[in-house]
Design brief:
alpha/beta, Rossmann fold, binds NADPH dihydro-nicotinamide-adenine-dinucleotide phosphate, single chain, seven-stranded parallel β-sheet
Length: about 240
């Protein structure tokens, strides 16, 4: 029987590429999203991948989604905590709303999703959990105290979870992408984006499928001894 993978924010951008790649690898994939029904429907129709609408920042909604997936598929073997947002402002202009929203979607979500799947993974003695962090969680970024705080928090979360879970054949790893060619990056002002690309040793943005290839490897049997790792994939932008 094929393994079941749940990809949060799996209908667009990096998550879309991860969903497609895991399906190509033979997994049964469920892609979560929060609001863009049109994009989700198009993605689902084109790829024959089930989608599930749920705000991963809301514990009750996550619980409902996961229970429905268990009813249908019995297990969730692979969890990709990918959904994430930005609400940038320097700290002296950061509102509590911007702070809380990013903490909720990028970090509370990881507690919600992971705590709701971990017990069944422990029972079945198998699990692959991957958290999509960011180079900006490793090095910090102007205007991103909220975002960087959530993305570096994932590293401590993942290492602690790896310590708790390795004995049950569950791995928890972090992938830190650099600047990737998605709508999130397209929203950056053109002159700022150009100056960012100038600082990348590879002199280009990364592609979503490059992140998906790394995730695919981490999910595979070949990666069973990689646990608690933080893997950078950023064209040489930050070597950590
Ligand atoms: P996109 O904005 O392109 O896609 C975001 C996806 O997440 C969409 O499917 C969206 O659903 C979903 N989503 C957003 N909020 C929620 C929520 N509350 N609950 C459930 N799903 C939600 O993002 P990217 O592909 O650019 O980024 C994916 C991840 O990679 C993020 O965690 C981001 O921080 C990280 N990252 C991205 C980089 C980049 O350069 N793009 C660099 C480093 C890290 P909907 O379609 O309904 O809006």
């Amino acid at each position: 029987m094929s393994k079941i993978a749940l990809v949060t924010g799996g209908t667009r951008g990096i998550g879309e590429s991860i969903s497609k790649k895991l399906k190509e690898d033979g997994l049964t994939v469920i892609a979560n999203y929060s609001s863009n029904d049109d994009a989700a429907k198009k993605f689902s129709d084109e790829n024959q991948i089930d989608v599930f609408k749920c705000d991963v920042g809301n514990y009750e909604s996550c619980s409902d989604m996961i229970n429905k997936i268990y009813d249908q598929h019995k297990s969730i073997d692979v969890l990709i905590n990918n959904a994430g947002i930005t609400r940038d402002a320097p700290l002296h202009k950061m509102t509590p709303e911007k702070w809380q929203k990013v903490i909720n979607v990028n970090l509370d979500s990881v507690f919600n999703m992971t705590s709701l799947v971990i017990n069944k993974m422990r029972e079945s003695q198998f699990g692959r959990i991957i958290h999509i962090s960011s180079v900006n969680g490793q090095k910090g970024q102007f205007g991103q105290t909220n975002y960087a705080a959530t993305k570096s928090a994932l590293i401590g979360f993942s290492k602690s979870l790896a310590l708790e879970s390795a004995i049950k054949n569950i791995t928890s790893n972090v992938v830190c992408p650099g600047y990737i060619n998605t709508e999130m990056v397209a929203a950056i002002r053109e002159d700022i984006l150009k100056s960012i690309i100038d600082t990348i040793p590879a002199k280009r943005l990364g592609e979503s499928n490059e992140i998906a290839e790394l995730v695919s490897y981490l999910v595979s049997e070949k990666a069973q001894y990689i646990n608690g790792a933080t893997l950078s994939i950023n064209g040489g932008l930050w070597m950590d």
